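@channel sequence for tomorrow's demo:
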Amino acid sequence: MKTCPVCGGSNPDNAAFCNACGGRLDAAPDPGTEANRESYDSYGPAYDNGPAYGGHPYGGQSYGPPILPRSILLAIILTIITCGIYGIYWMCKINDEVNALSGEYNATSGGAVVLFSIITCGIYGVYWAYKMGQRCAGLGGEASGGILYLILALFGFQIINLALFQDVINRCV
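structure tokens (generated this afternoon):
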């Protein structure tokens, strides 16, 4: 049986995450050992238990795969080709990645953002753009708030917001 370092709960030997809190049960590989050098080099510094790790689906903090940069041009093209369906997925992923980068693991999930936007006929999406603009400004070291993102969302240019948010994510990872 493995003991969770976060909550102290007992888990099966083959478990990677705690059944109680979702915390990671095994430590990240030590990049200093020769056996782990190849694994570490393939992920780079983002594998060092840094903020580039997402939350565990059962709650708690986990150290999942690193966040990789996404091609903004390709994401825009896919959004246009799929009539916005990829844009919904992109919005969900951006939200989750910003949550991970900012360390706000208990913030609203990407799925909830999409659901709230659909339920409110896009009104929540405008609010989300404003709040995400503030969070991305904090990640990028900028002093500006989310007013630009709010204006773009009000005029129907949410795809530009997504591209700007993705640019911040790409610069952070």
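heads up for whoever presents: Residues 100 and 170 are 13 Å apart (CA to CA).
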